[in-house]
Amino acid sequence: MRTMRAAVLRDFSLGIQLEDMAIPEPKPNQVLVRILASGICHTDLHAINGSWDRKPILPLIPGHEGVGVIEALGSKVTGFTLDQKVLIPWIGRTCRTCSFCFNGIENYCEKQFNTGYIIPGTHAEYTAADFRYIVPLANDIDPIQTAPLACAGLTAFETIKQLRSNENQTLLIMGVGGVGHLAIQYAKEFFTRIIAIDPSAIRIEQAKLLGAETYSPEEWLSLNSKPLIDAAAVFAADPRAVTDSINALKNGGTLALVGLGKHKELSLPWFELVTRGIRILGSHVGPISTLKEVVEYHHLGKAKVLVESRPLADIHLAMADLAAGINNSPRLVLVP
Ligand SMILES: [Zn+2]
Ligand SMILES: [Zn+2]
How far is the CA of 151 from the centre of ligand 1 (A)? Predict the structure, then answer.
C-alpha cells in the first residue's frame, strides 16, 4: 500500500495530527492530485475548533486551497491529463440539479460538499478531487502564489464583482488579511478611492504599499470629517467592523458581509438601515466560473498574493500564528 503524510483531525479535543495513511483511490469522477502547495484559511481554524454550528465531518483532512499535479485519472474524467497542474477549491462537489447549480452559482447550492470540511482536503501529500470543480493551471504557475486564489482570491474577486459599479466610487475595506489585501488589488480597476482599516500595524503597512488609504479602527473613529463611502466590504470577523461600516456608508450605500467569526448573530440598527436605504449582501466564496477569471487575472500579473510558505510538518505552528495574527504575510501556504 502506498502511503502519504496528511494532517488529520480525528477529535476536536485532540486537534490536528500528522499521520501516514493510504493514498486515496480516485473514484470515476475524480483525479488523484499530488499536492504542491496548500493555503491555510481561517476556515481551517474554525474546522479544527468545531466553532460553527455546522460541524465538519471527522476524521477530516483540512485545507481547501490546493495546487497540485494530476497523477491518476478516474474512468469518467474528461478534459484533464496526467501531469497537468490544477487548483482545488472549497466547493468540492455540489448536487448539479438545483437552480443554483444550473445557473452557475453552485456556491449557493444547498447540497455542497466542501473540501477540507465535509470531504478530505489538501493539507496532505495527495488528495482526490472531482474534476468538474477543479481549475486547470498553466505549467509555469508558481504553486505558492496560486494556492491562495482558490479561496482568498476567489472570495475577494467575487466580493468586488458584487460591489463594483461604473461610477467613480469610494470603497471601504474592513480587514486586510488574506482576502482583504487581494480585494484592494482587484478593487483598483473599479474604485477611485480605497480605504482600508485594520488593527494590525503590519497589515496597515501592507495595505498602504498596495495603494490603499489606511487607518487603524481608532484613527478612523476619531476622524472629524469622514469621507462618504459608497460600498463597504467586511472581511474582518469582528462585529464592530460591521457597525463601523454601516455608520460610514452614505445613504443608499451597499455593505457586503464576507468574513465569518464565531458570533452567530449580528445586532443591526433597524431604523437606520431602513431610513438610510442601506443594502446588505452576503457573499460566500464564488462559483468556479469566477475562479477561472481570478486564475487568469493573476497569470497576467495583474495582482500578487502576499504569501509565505511553511513545511506541512509545521502545520501546528502555522495554525497558531494565524490564530494569533502574528504571521508577517497575510496568507500562509503549506508545502508537503
Ligand atoms: Zn477559505
Ligand atoms: Zn445544487
Answer: 5
